[in-house]
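Hey,
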Amino acid sequence: MKLSNFFYNAVTQYLFLISFWLLIKTTKSEFTYTESKFGISSPQKPLITDIKTYKDGTILVRIIRNDSIQTNNDCKTLNVTSLEPILRIRVIHTNDGTTNEIDLNLTDLPMQPINYCLFKNEKNPIQIYPLQNPFILITYMTVGNVSDRLTYWEHGIVIDCYGTNRSDITLWSANVDFSSGNWLYSNKIQLNTDDSLGFLRPYLDNTLQWWQYSV
């Protein structure tokens, strides 16, 4: 019993020291970055909607902003909120404090306007994933008829940290609940533990299958 208690106390103290060391390690540095491309005249403030990290610590940040005049007809048809039609991603290099600013409009990255809708469950079709640095996977939707959910498809596109389009692919059918105005997040991307091997995505067609995509 004494040996057991000693072992328990030793393990507890050891874990405490590890936790304390990690706390110091993760709070010892600071990073400051100032956005300068949004302007001060717009009443719509930028919002951070997603933050992800590469294995080397490089950070991906996606920024959105509501469309102040709600001009997106696809969003009006679905009775949901319009976002400013610009894909804004910031690539923060924590090793030297530099930041790559990626701002892609509908000309740079020809996504349909529905991808800039914010659905009532506060979901957006565009998602970002850090692949093998410097590559970024962006998932989005294409639609044949906004009023027909059977024409909704999920796609993926790979860009680099400078915004250059590297490749794109159709993933699977997408799902929108018209009655509730919710976008049902069906694009279950799982990054591979070996980031050089790309990512996995499950498909449910009678049986569950996992497909691997290489970059």
